[in-house]
Amino acid sequence: MKVAVLLAGVADPRHPLTLRSSRPPEIRRDNPLVFSPFDEAALELALKIRDGRRDTAITAIVAGGAESDALVRKAAAHRLDSVARLESEALAIWDVGATAHGLAEALRGLATRPDLVLIGREFGDFDDGALAPCLAAALGWPLFDLAQFARWEGDELILVRDGRSAEERLGLRPPWVASVTNDRRNRLRHPLMKNVMEARRRGFDVLTVAPVVPSATLKAVAPARERTRREPCRFLTGSVENQVAELAAYLQPWRALR
Amino acid sequence: MNGPVVALCPCRPGESLDVGPLRAAKTVAGEAGAPVAAILVEAADRQIEQARSEGDLVVWDVRHADLSPLDDAERRGPVFVEALKQSGLGDFRLAVLPAGHVGAALAAAIGKSFDAAVLGACAEIVLTAGGVEARRSTCGGRVEIVVAADGRCVVATRDASQRGPSRRVGEVRPLRLATPLPDRRPVERVGAAGRDRSVATARVVIAGGRGIGGDEGFDRLRDLAGCLDGAVGGSLPAVDAGWVPVSAQVGQSGQFVAPEVYVAVGVSGTPQHLAGVGAAARIVAINTDVDADIFRFADVGIVAAWRDVVPALVRRLRSSPEAFSPDERDP
């Protein structure tokens, strides 16, 4: 099984966001980067697949500029078969269509075609979940979205997710794209320190793709507007019993009909 | 371009229609004087009536001979594509879908088939001379961008503050399709995960966060949801912990919800979480931390442990006199 994991990283949500530029690549450069929970879930899912079958080969591609090199090494510390950075300047990362086509081109350029492409349900700071389906469409491959877990049953890889009415399991017949979401079973493990040190010494390829014609224009970038409120919060006071009674009265109009 | 604005509504049996795309399409079209239509696939009579009552639009009641309720976007996408073509709406300027992974998958299919720009989950959508301009939340809800595209566009809508029903009722046109669909995927369905009611269309959402601390707390939230005819959701940390299914995750990275009341229990109120809650929702916050950000956005707040409040609230609601009928609900 050949697995390609696409990773992007996001501005670390534990730090205030620095917004000095209206260019997404510069915004990315101006802020410390970490893997998002969905990047981590995608990478961990690939590692779980390899845990089950040692002949699994994992390629990780981190989309970004030179500021992303630390993320490339962080991925490499999991002893992947290959790691690379995809120069993202040509992708127009805020443009879903352009990014999907750029990623598809990068995947087509790999020495061997992956059987499975894993990508977080959101890819970086500028995707809200539209990218993975567009990537699958650009590749012409089927999509299994919101995968949460994977396991081997004999020679068959099973991808698992919670559906609306049942757990859904897909026996994989390559090639597939799977978007991966957060789940307690795919929290990213810690790499061994010796592998972290080796990853720091290891080189990696920088991939490039031809600039893609954008399907959209970025017209403005600004800090998010504060959510407006009608009035300040009305804190209920008195004993807890009194607060509960007041809240029950407030919620009375929405009480379920008997 | 003079084509219509089209709301695309995937329907699930037993659930209310998500009217977000419909109202967004009406609002966008109304401001530009463009025609507006809605395509409902495999809708129940009640859902058709909901769409029709929104008024001022043509509602296409689309059925496909080979589509089942369990079919996913891989098979629903081609139905929407064919419906757009056969209804004469293939020259659309803008197609509006619900936010979320189903809408995203359908957007990809429609974008590819019609060579339309996919703009993502947007608000403040307007038609321009040659296309569409819209605002999208990025960077975990901390940055907003404005994107524009010429030609056909596809958006998902996260804007719940759109034009409501009008006095006129819409016209319903049936459309029966039998075009070949892709083979069904060999997806096996096991057990009963995600049994909770969908948060996307609920009038009341009870959301738990990290502060709930475990499965038992979510059982109490389900009790409360039962009293309020509501649905239970959770923040990303609660989903990470396995206390609530990912299908009920509320936030920038999960479901967008636009309930009348949002009861946030043990939720800190990060921008990422609140980006998934419609601005018109009344927020009730229960949290032990008086400095939690959620209180900055709440209408009503209780500073206390959920264990002291939620079970007592459930008892109180269960023991109070007869519930109001829907017509009386006007707080």
What does this structure look like?
Chain A is of the alpha/beta class. Chain A contains seven helices and 14 strands. Chain A has a single domain, classed as Rossmann fold, CATH 3.40.50.620. In chain A, the strands form three sheets. A seven-stranded parallel beta sheet of chain A has the order 7-11-6-1-4-5-12, sandwiched between helices. Chain A has a three-stranded antiparallel beta sheet with strand order 8-9-10. In chain A, helix 3 crosses helix 6 (193-201) and helix 4 (96-108) packs across helix 5 (131-139). Chain B has 331 residues and is α/β, with parallel strands linked by helices. Chain B is built from nine helices and 15 strands. Chain B has helices spanning 20-32, 45-53, 73-86, 101-114, 215-227, 236-240, 271-274, 294-297, 306-319; strands at residues 5-10, 36-41, 58-64, 94-98, 117-127, 131-138, 143-150, 153-157, 171-177, 187-190, 204-208, 231-234, 261-265, 282-287, 300-303. The longest helix of chain B is centred in the N-terminal third of the chain and has 14 residues, at 73-86. The radius of gyration of chain B is 20 Å and the shape is globular. The N and C termini of chain B lie far apart (44 Å). The relative contact order of chain B is 0.12. The model of chain B is unreliable at 324-331 (pLDDT under 50). The chains are: A alpha/beta (258), B alpha/beta (331). Chains A and B meet through strand 2, helix 5, strand 7, strand 10 and strand 13 of A and helix 4, strand 5, strand 6, strand 7 and strand 10 of B. Strand 10 (167-171) of chain A pairs antiparallel with strand 10 of chain B, so a sheet runs across the interface.
